[in-house]
Amino acid sequence: MTEFSESFLKEIPKTDLHLHLDGSLRLETLIQLAKERRVKLPSETPEGLLELVFKDQYRDLPDYLHGFAYTCAVLKDEDALEQVAYELGQDNLAEGVSYIEVRFAPQLHVSGDLGIGRVIAAVDRGLDRVRREHEQSEDVKSGKMPPFRYGIITCAMRMFTKGFAPYYEKLLAVLDKWPTQKVYGVASLSLARSVIEARDKLGLPIVGFDLAGAEHGNPAQGHVEAYEYVKRHFMHTTVHAGEAYGPESIFQAITDLHADRIGHGTHLFAAEQVDAEDRERYVRQLSEYVADRRITLEVCITSNMQTMPQLRRVADHPFGRMVKDRLSVTLCTDNRLVSRTSVTQELDQACKAFDLTPYLLRSIVIHGFKRSFFPGSYREKRTYVRQVIDTYDRVAASHGIDHSEKY
Q1: Which domain holds residue 16?
Q2: What's the pLDDT tens digit per position in 164-173?
Q3: DSSP secondary structure string for all residues of 118-134
């Protein structure tokens, strides 16, 4: 078993392809923004919030999502969105994460005359400031480290089908008080049209379209039109599936919505959840289809451990079987604040629990870059990935790590 030091895992270039903006604030920033915007929190200290809201373990997914009521409540203006995006980019760079795809549901942040385009533009300004600052560093100028790159993924919500849905009010129902202004979520097709317009007319680096929210009782079929629309306009797609529902949710994501990637996919092998005559056969065929099509699974181990009581140890997570079956996987944080994690921590626990070899670790890390929805041309992406690979190999050599052995 190869031991990978924390310094090595921090130094290698990494990605985070499943990273929620509203779940990844700095705790101190949440408190600051809440005070400035008169949003009541359960506690005004980091220690209190970690005890009451952002815990080590949650009862279930609804308990996990409780904290988003507070984070979304403070992200209602451009200054707050830009600040949080900027700090998120900084936090990733601090641990060697060179490429991120930040996702969020723009309709949860609109208010007054602040529309979807301006919401996304504010996030872009924060991330772009990180990019520009990093390019002035000696590490980038000398070629020691790759430049910071990012893309934005916009999330539709499963509850938003046709017309309008007052999901935002439901999300904030856990708060004792909330301003009387009602903010309604737009339908997924309307969101799809808005983000394509924002990408093409405003030049914003929107690289993907996602579907998030409660899986159970909200099937993917209700969002076919939105996904067809973004596909016709050459936008990549991902879908939250197999996180809180079974393999059939993943099946819907790849057959009805033609997803390029799957968010989580944790229940891919859960045959007991399948409504089929031969459950094991269904799961086997589904996983083989996902593997053959190289549909990447955005795996978030800590997040799953916190919301799924049946996962008592990291070694119980299906990531091990995904790797063994040679599926296309990448490790992600999901929510840096809500899950109290980082990319380095996700890699570290996976290496230890699943005895990842240097070869497998390198493959998983590099695959994150290769399967990203990179905001540049294909040739630019290849050049960037080549720079990342050269950097990774240089860091590995400096730590005396040989990844030439395949298995």
Answers
A1: 6-398
A2: 333 344 443 4
A3: HHHHHHHHHHHHHHHHH
